[in-house]
Specification:
Helix content: 40-55%
Protein name: Transposase
Radius of gyration: 23 Å
Shape: globular
Pfam family, one: DDE_Tnp_1
Largest sheet: 6 strands, mixed
Order of helices and strands: HEHEEEEHHEHHHEEHE
Oligomer: single chain
GO molecular function: DNA binding; transposase activity
Strand order of the largest sheet: 1-2-6-5-4-3
Keywords: Membrane, Transmembrane, Transmembrane helix
Structural class: alpha+beta
Amino acid sequence: KSFDFLMDQYDLKNATIIAYRGLSSYELTERMKKRKTGFIVALRRNMNVIDYGIPMDGNFIYHGRGINSSRTKTEHGYLYLYEDVIMRGEEETNYISSVQEGSRTADQLNDARKRFGKISILSSLLRDPEEIFNLYKDREEVEQAFDAMKNDLENDKTYLQDAIAVRGYFFISFLSLYVYFSILQLLKSHGLHPKISVKEALLELSKIYAITRGARRSLSEVPLKSAKLAETLGIKLYPKILRN
């Protein structure tokens, strides 16, 4: 219902909606096509439009994970099929364990193998498979940013008693997201995303320290990976101060 409300209230002709598996349906994609709204929708593995026999003719690396890819045209849009090779191994290992325990059969294992590690996306856009994959994963980056606000920063717990404090709380939350996405855009502009995430970049750039002992101040050794990242981004490392 909330999705219908969104479609009715706003002109989305020049927009592209990125949706997760829970919203995948042929009816939904047809409605978006009628409204001339672009879409990138992850599919459930049991949907009939998916052809697991499509040969994988492309590959790329996403956050250190090997991804095989393919693209084909269907009556509902362009079908992008991906295979995460690490996920494939993990899923097959878990399934084999189930067979050994007796909760599943060898025939079920053979039938399920074609789906291990597979991610299917239906889109109205004709693009390079890696670009579509990155666009879909960018949606997860937004969710991770809000998760970081709630879990890492505990921004879902205000304990505030007056309106001024609440306004300050939301202002700081806004700044947190602004900084997060500014760093994300910087990584993208230098071709580092999705090879490295915002969290990984911040971790690497925090590994240099200024050590103060009395009147003496010296820098710790800069890790090679941190130095290379800073050089690539064209930024200066500002060390954290270690206080004794």
